[in-house]
Amino acid sequence: MNTLEQIAENIKRIKAELGGRARLLAATKTVPADIINFALDCGIDLIGENRVNELLEKYEHIDRSRTEIHFIGALQTNKVKYIIDKVDMIHSVDRVSLVDEIERQAAKRNIIMPVLAEINIGKEETKSGILPEQAEEFCAYISEKPHIKLCGLMAIPPKSENFGDNRKYFCEMAKIFIDISSKNVDNSNMDVLSLGMSDDYADAADCGSTLVRVGSAIFGKREYPIKNQE
Ligand SMILES: *Cc1c(COP(=O)(O)O)cnc(C)c1O
Fold first, then answer.
1. pLDDT digits 0-9 by tens, 80-132
2. Which residue has the least CA distance to atom 11 on ligand 1?
3. d(CA 126, ligand 1 centre) in Å
4. What is the spatial distance between Cα 210 and Cα 46, in angstroms, rounded to a whole number?
5. Atom 6 of ligand 1 has which residue's CA nearest to it?
6. Which among 92, 166, 155, 163 has a CA at the least distance from the CA of 121?
7. Distance between CA atoms of 82 and 80, rounded to whole angstroms?
8. Burial class (CB in 10 A: 0-12, 13-18, 19+), 80
9. What pLDDT is recorded for position 139?
10. What's the CATH number of domain 4-219, 3.40.50.11930, 3.20.20.10, 3.40.50.10490, 3.30.470.30?
11. Cβ atoms within 10 A of the Cβ of 164, count?
12. Ligand 1 centroid to 138 CA: how many Å?
């Protein structure tokens, strides 16, 4: 974990590099609430959490008047009910059963949940997400749901060997994003393309990402208290 001084410096530098092209989401898994609140002092106004239990533990301690909270991790269907009224957007909507459960829980509370469709842009067997060729159909399915608002797309490309490797995936995502948002007349609100992490946020922004999710480049190497899992 970085020092507060380093964290402040990193946020300033990354924001300057992005230059307003993409919004900066601070990926705060394993980061304690007091450090998150410090990041808010430094100009962060959007954080992303990965795990339901961790989010619930930190939730009361995060200064929520100053930040939006997005859910960016793999989401089990039976845990939707715990976060539905606590997050401003869910990035990781990757299957029909999850769409159905979000609709059910949002309807119960009479809210409209903003979501992104997660695309498996590298077509990796081990990764969740909708295959690129099924993206349009999946987005159409989401947009029929009265208590869900489809706001855009998200992807995590394959682990890259070299800097710049992911640009081709980012460009493919940008193309799918433009295709779907132009066709989907009912959903004029497709304006979020969530792409890019610590190693490649600048490439993602070059390729049209509107939101980058950055963790370790802000906070330093993650320290996992219990076991090593993302
Ligand atoms: C952890 C995480 C990030 C940030 O990863 P870094 O490499 O630390 O920037 C971004 N997106 C998702 C979905 C994550 O789980």
1. 999 999 999 999 999 999 999 999 999 999 999 999 999 999 999 999 999 99
2. 213
3. 17
4. 13
5. 215
6. 155
7. 5
8. buried
9. 95
10. 3.20.20.10
11. 11
12. 24
Residue 154, amino acid: M
Q: What's 28-53 look like in SS3?
A: CCCCCHHHHHHHHHCCCCEEEECCHH
Q: How far apart are CA 180 and CA 178, in angstroms?
A: 6
Position 83: which residue type? I
Q: Is the CB of 198 under 6 A from ligand 1?
A: yes
Note the pLDDT tens digit of each residue in 26-80: 999 999 999 999 999 999 999 999 999 999 999 999 999 999 999 999 999 999 9
Question: Which region among 14-18, 57-61, 179-183 has the lowest average model confidence (pLDDT)?
Answer: 179-183
Q: Where along the chain do its domains lie?
A: 4-219
Pick the residue whose CA is nearest to atom 5 on ligand 1.
215
**Is residue 154 within 6 Å of ligand 1 at its C-beta?**
no
CA of 74 to the centre of ligand 1 (A): 12
Q: Is 50 in the pocket of ligand 1 (CB under 6 A)?
A: yes
